[in-house]
């Protein structure tokens, strides 16, 4: 390295340091500047021997990340120092203890969080991205700044990826689109999200990116002229109202134009709103809302609005804290233009997210839902039952979801992802409310738990201590939070039934002169072809393994000679048996429609679904029902052209499988008879009543009841108990 180069780098470093202090969004105190200076010196010293692939001194990377953190995200001096030091522990001689002594516990903790994200071990069979994402979120309980600095780090890496090999570029860009862009969006860093998406597209689909980029460049002059003409029309009216404002044109991002081209199946020229006009006005807090609607009124006096495209995020801010008024109007030459109306404060929040909130926050003002969001995140993270890949998919649903706003009976406002149901809302209010939901009312009317909510609905949850989640609740919810809570509740219920089952099994085996020990349990697991002892105990508790089956086991065990031959004969088949069991243990049966009927079907060759896949049935003309995967290449075409021939289909877990049975009851009518019948059924834990119909004709009583039971034993017991009720003559199963 020549003296001249080293000298030039030193000068450049001095310049960068001054720039860093100048561009900071916060007002830095003397102590802040001291902290940043020492972090800067340590970073320069630690990385002095390192170079990046481009040949540039490595230390310019942490400085660039610190500049993004200081200017674009607007975090405090602690974060700027942590950004400068973010690679020090990972790549150099400095340890965490050194940092703690030099800069205090907070900086050390943030750097530790960032180092953990970089050095994560992962399971070979789980998507690395998913595991990365989950671990990254787990650091949230330490400090949200860890994630924000990580996003800044990723942004700078994406901006400087040109010297990397192509396969690495694609990997990093895919991960960015999959994880970091949704994260930036959710924290409210819209400018950074847009840049990450565009850079992600640049490396994953370079031809598409370059094509759209050049088309935007070619049409720039024409667009500038159009925005100028659009603005001119409004300026006179704004000036006559003495408004203090600025009108800016903003082309839509390359990524969002690409998304529109795919979603609407149109070419670049056919995308109708390729740019937006932003009106930013000065205002004090009292008049902010009034002025936004005044500007709206002036814009719509000149240009006709599209009533379907009004978005009022001033009255109900997004959960990221975003506030603005969006309208789409018909501009000159018959073109749609999106107009965004924001005060300077709202604009800063849209660009800086979390940091601007912090700046504007006072005792009365809420923190834009960010704290709520972190708490919800924390709940999801603490649920260890859910695999990393499921976690990412559920979390992504909640990241990009459009929002609806619904009210409680008292008028409290909740935001939920679009498509949420009444049961989702119950879990949103509180986990305990969700767990004990008995019924739901929307706008005063009783509705099913699966009722899809719309913005503005008023929802009331009816709870009961006796109500608990059942397996079909998973069909009624769409949010990750509700799903994970229901799943863990069902697991708890399964464990409870298994505990009871263990006691029952010990008692029954004792009467067969068999002791329940580890050896017996292993024999039972093999004999009943279940996977674990938990499955075994659960099946006994639920009555799936009954007395007769246990007698069969005892008989097979006592005859060791026969057993020996059976095993000899069975051995070649065993691997095949085990494999079959692995698939069928969890998903045994395919059922169709709301009634969950068992019908004949064939698997479609185009996508070859296997048990457990998300599927739907399609009624063909000649071949009966064909089962396709939800993401089958033909699914979209079938669903759009032949929607009336689509049947809902799902796999039923063999342990959770339920059977529907219709019972006809006849007898002599008596006061309280109906009550006795329904009471008997509802007090039985494993029975769910789906339909009830009673008639009385001149003293003779007829009843039809549809029940859902786990197995035939439970049904037989119910029939016996019903026959004992005074006045009942006959109980028959249809």
From TrEMBL:
Pathway the protein contributes to: Purine metabolism
PROSITE patterns: HD, TGS
Keywords assigned by UniProt, alphabetized: Hydrolase
GO molecular function terms attached to this record: hydrolase activity
GO biological process: guanosine tetraphosphate metabolic process
SMART domains: HDc, RelA_SpoT
Residue stretches making up the TGS domain: 402-463
Ranges of residues in domain HD: 58-158
Gene Ontology terms: cellular component: plasma membrane
Keyword Hydrolase attributed: yes
NCBIfam families, A to Z: spoT_relA
Entry similarity comment: Belongs to the relA/spoT family.
PANTHER family: GTP PYROPHOSPHOKINASE, GUANOSINE-3',5'-BIS DIPHOSPHATE 3'-PYROPHOSPHOHYDROLASE
The protein, known as: Bifunctional (P)ppGpp synthetase/guanosine-3',5'-bis(Diphosphate) 3'-pyrophosphohydrolase
